Amino acid sequence: MTDIEKNLEELEKQLEALKEFSNLHGVDLSKEIKSIEDKITELRKEAYSNLSPWDKVNLARHSGRPTSLDYIGRIFEDFIELHGDRSFREDFAIVGGIATLEGHPVTVIGHQKGRDTKENIKRNFGMPHPEGYRKALRLMKQAEKFHRPVICFIDTAGAFCGIGAEERGQGEAIARNLLEMSRLKTPIISIVIGEGGSGGALALGVGDKIYMLEYAVYSVLSPEGFAAILWKDSSKAKEAAEIMKITAQDLMSFKIIDEVVPEPLGGAHKDMEKMSEEIKKYIIKGLKEVRNQSIEDLIQNRYDKFRKIGEYQS
Amino acid sequence: MLKGFFKKTKYVTTSSPLYEKPPTPNIPDGMWIKCTACEQIVYKKDLESNKKVCPHCGYHFRMTARERMDLIIDEGTFREFNQNLFTLNPLSFPNYEKKISEQQEKAKLSEAVVTGTGKICGEETVIAVMDSHFLMGSMGSVVGEKITRAVEEATKRKLPVVIFSTSGGARMQEGIFSLMQMAKTSAAIAKHDEEGLLYISVLTDPTTGGVTASFAMLGDIILAEPGALIGFAGPRVIEQTIKQKLPEGFQKSEFLLEHGLIDEIIPRDHLKETLGKLLRLHKEVG
């Protein structure tokens, strides 16, 4: 896929040169330009309709892929970021705050990856510590108190594995979020926008509606981790990705997610505005679907939603 | 030269996401066994009569679910739930069915957890006991479903729950279905909690990954056996991530107690009476 993408980008460059030439010398090449443009679109469509799970992993991790803050700024108005878990410290791997969606207040929370090395160091590559999950829970409880819906953007390789994380109870922090989210008295919409890695993703994922972007992935562990455990060889990540069933389409077929949000041709990073518009539509639709339920029904339905997941024979 | 006699068997496969190489959970079929911790030679019968605790150094060997139940539950009071839930292969994972039947044969269990009701020091309780000898106690659909059903039954019957955890985490071969069991079990615990009922979580060696990050850390009271490895990520994963050696005693029960993550460490010899005491204390409604 990346090879095809490289070729396509090369073609696009040539097209630009052609356009420039045409403008500069006043030669009418519009017919040729149009035909090349059509060809590029067609090639891209073909390439993107045949993506392998591993291709999708790479797209989900693409360095240019929009992050939570990119979407928050485009989907909501008046975002005010709120920091800290009130206990240990601020974790920049999770962002959260209050905003409005079409005039209505909402609480927004998301994993936050960085764009470059410097930002990624600050954001710990979007891998939260326990205090990140505790901040998220604090903001969710706040949303419950003020009757605001919660919108969660999921985008993490996983919860951070380190000494401090263990010392402060990474397991407990994730578990607590799962428990509290399951009974939070306000609607929750979770959207996997990139990587949904393991418990660290699920800790923002116990929602009334769960959506995934078309090229997002959601899995029990990263393909690298999976390969390392089962085959003692993390370089077999590509093979792992093929059998793990981690794509939005797989999870849709398992009925684990509610809907797949289509991405612009070439992926979310090709047209951030359009992608944000699309996500916004889904959030509004999702909220409409859950909003007229009583709180009791909402919580019972959320319980049932997760209660029924599991494949066994009795 | 003598060392060769006690050569550790190599650990071949593991289902655990975050944990590798348990300190020899299997007692070999010999008369003698070398203690994993102090390396003293122990007569196997002595070890068994000592609740699988090393008489020299107090190291707690891993127990099977049956051994644990014999130790904790009043004789003849256990009624098992859901014996007939069988594992499927939702991802069509190569050789998974074969692996499961091998494990069933080896561990003499249908899956990695046994659930039911029984009495502990005369107190009626819903009990779940995990077994690390079955695919490293990993949690797939059946483990998640059995725990959830057991907790729901306790909620319905207004009974306390005691869960003995031991697990490498979520079961890789069932992928996303395994991950979702974390949410499912935690939600069931939430409902039990809403009813004002008691849940005691007992952490035994090892408890890691998705089990730590769900029901195991959600007890009203969390107890642990001495020296048990308890964590979210396994030590090997952490070492690889941070590229440095981990401090002595890291992720052991004592470390967790020191960091305020568990309520108390209870030696196996006192576990039953402690549970009985706690269960009794919570029967008195103020």
TrEMBL record, chain B:
Keywords, ordered alphabetically: ATP-binding, Cytoplasm, Fatty acid biosynthesis, Fatty acid metabolism, Ligase, Lipid biosynthesis, Lipid metabolism, Metal-binding, Nucleotide-binding, Transferase, Zinc, Zinc-finger
Stretches assigned to the CoA carboxyltransferase N-terminal domain: 31-286
Catalytic reaction equation(s): N(6)-carboxybiotinyl-L-lysyl-[protein] + acetyl-CoA = N(6)-biotinyl-L-lysyl-[protein] + malonyl-CoA
UniProt-annotated binding residues for Zn(2+): C35, C38, C54, C57
GO terms, biological process: fatty acid biosynthetic process; malonyl-CoA biosynthetic process
Record bears the keyword Transport: no
GO CC terms, sorted: acetyl-CoA carboxylase complex
InterPro entries on file: AcCoA_carboxyl_beta, Acetyl_CoA_COase_Trfase_b_su, ClpP/crotonase-like_dom_sf, COA_CT_N, Znf-ACC
EC number: 2.1.3.15
Pathway connected to this protein: Lipid metabolism; malonyl-CoA biosynthesis; malonyl-CoA from acetyl-CoA: step 1/1
UniProt subcellular location: Cytoplasm
GO-annotated molecular function: acetyl-CoA carboxylase activity; ATP binding; carboxyl- or carbamoyltransferase activity; zinc ion binding
Zinc finger (C4-type): 35-57
Free-text remark on how the cofactor is bound: Binds 1 zinc ion per subunit.
Subunit structure: Acetyl-CoA carboxylase is a heterohexamer composed of biotin carboxyl carrier protein (AccB), biotin carboxylase (AccC) and two subunits each of ACCase subunit alpha (AccA) and ACCase subunit beta (AccD).
Protein name: Acetyl-coenzyme A carboxylase carboxyl transferase subunit beta
Lineage of the organism: Bacteria, Bacillati, Bacillota, Clostridia, Lachnospirales
